Inverse folding.
């Protein structure tokens, strides 16, 4: 489903990895430590990223909010069918 491969960056709140979602390359931003303020800021970033549409901005794929992994996933190349499959796998695993 989602695999983290190579760390490509880090910031104050977390790390960014190159990885794969359903076989497609994606960027995965994770949180290092979850605090109330950090969670609010990360949620705001997820909501903003989900609304942006521009050829020079990566496409929002989804987000995972859980004990094992809290992350924001973005890509330039997932099709609608692949995106739907990702969310169905996520829903079936966590809900």
């Amino acid at each position: 489903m989602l695999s983290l491969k190579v760390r490509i960056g880090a910031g104050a709140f977390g790390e960014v990895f190159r990885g794969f979602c359903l076989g497609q390359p994606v960027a995965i931003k994770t949180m290092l430590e979850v605090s109330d303020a950090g969670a609010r800021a990360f949620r705001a970033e997820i909501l903003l990223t989900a609304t942006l549409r521009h050829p020079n901005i990566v496409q929002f794929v989804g987000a995972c909010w859980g004990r094992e992994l809290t992350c924001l996933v973005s890509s330039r190349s997932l099709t609608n069918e692949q995106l739907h499959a990702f969310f169905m796998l996520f829903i079936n695993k966590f809900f």
